[in-house]
Amino acid sequence: CHFPVKERILLTFHKLKTNCSFAELAVGFRTQPNFAECCFAKTIQSLAQAFSDAIFLKCTSLQPNKLPAGFHMFPNVKTLLYCIEIKANMMIKILIGIEPSGHINYLSKVKSSKSLGAITFNIADLVLSLQPGDAIITDSNFTIDENVCYSKKIEVIRPAESSGTLSDSKQAKNIRTNAARTFIGHKIERLKQFKVLSEKIESSVEPYIDDIMTVICGLHNFLL
């Protein structure tokens, strides 16, 4: 890639932001599609290495009086897990962990499947960073290996199943959990302003999803 560094970075972020094809990208940067693709591939990997240190679990938590709405009843929550789905030739899912502050502290490796069946995420690497008594909030639209949580006495908070009549306490818990998830949902929408996460991607981009997520989430943390 003989472009100057600035041009390579501009090309890469233009691809992330607009999800335009490499043919369209080539026109805008006055080059050939295969060159644009090669330049993107090399640059996104280099950027991912630079941004990887920005995604980490913070040692300190927000003071209870500084927690955002929805988290006051969950002072021991260290991360809320959210599953992002990316449209491609195969179903691609990535698990993101977000702290109440909005800081992204966890990224799973990409899970892909041709079927629509449930995908189970192993979060052992996240659990290693947590302390007994900490909690995570999860959801019902994906599954995690909860055994690794229980073995370290990590509390798993998820909405109660809505089938049948819920008790008053479970209804109240659902309301609080959903309020927390709504707050985090706004952060996810910011990530999806990068159309590569919200529109169908080219097959040639699929091998770089891990790098793409690292760059976008790392940038999100820098801009907090």
Automatic annotation (TrEMBL):
Domain of life: Eukaryota
GO molecular function terms listed in the Swiss-Prot or TrEMBL record: endonuclease activity; metal ion binding
InterPro entries: HARBI1_dom
Residue ranges constituting the DDE Tnp4 domain according to the UniProt record: 87-221
Entry keyword set: Endonuclease, Hydrolase, Metal-binding, Nuclease
Keyword Glycoprotein on entry: no
Cofactor(s) demanded: a divalent metal cation
PANTHER family named in the record: THAP DOMAIN PROTEIN (PTHR23080)
Protein name: Putative dde superfamily endonuclease
